Amino acid sequence: MLAGLQTVFWFAQRAEQEAEVESAQRFGQQVERLGLDLRIERGLPLHDTRPAKSRVRARIEQVQQQMATAGPSAQGPGHYAIGLGYLALGDNVRARESLDAAWSAGYQTPEVSTNLGLALGRLYRDALLEIDSVGNPAQRDGRRVVVQASLRDPAVRFLRMGDADPDFAIYTASLTDFLEGDLD
User: Fold this and answer.
1) Number of domains observed in the structure of the chain
2) How far apart are CA 63 and CA 56, in angstroms?
3) Which of 49, 73, 107 is the last residue of a domain?
4) In terms of DSSP H, where are the helices of 105-136?
5) Taking 70 as the threshold, does the pLDDT of residue 92 lie above it?
6) Four-point Cα dihedral 183, 126, 59, 101, nearest 10
């Protein structure tokens, strides 16, 4: 009887893992395609990119709706896909929130780690630009210490975890060096 229950449990666990993989692939393909389209749009001669951005936002909404009906196994992959969409749009705050949610939901792949590190790195860069406008050197130094601990250090940690992804290894190593101030 115990062996039978273990077998049933194993099959249920396997089905949930397969559902998560399927959700990840479906959501990821949808948003990655739109992110690629948006990058291509940005590379074209100067033109209105609002329609392409609208398509990415619409896809994010579709993923959110699909997540609501797909169940718990879709939450991590869904948040990851949404985070990719926000990264493509340049909304680094929402990208971080979505990628954090994917990570917290147990969807802890090298790709999630790399993109979470990227979002944190972009937020760190933005914070440094803001800090540079502070006139008081003591305040500037104090703020720099805070953003290093809250943004830079986690960015480096996530980028290093994402090094397992061979497609991004050189990029993540370079970005990690930049964040750590190693510009050689």
Assistant:
1) 2
2) 11
3) 107
4) 110-131
5) yes
6) 90
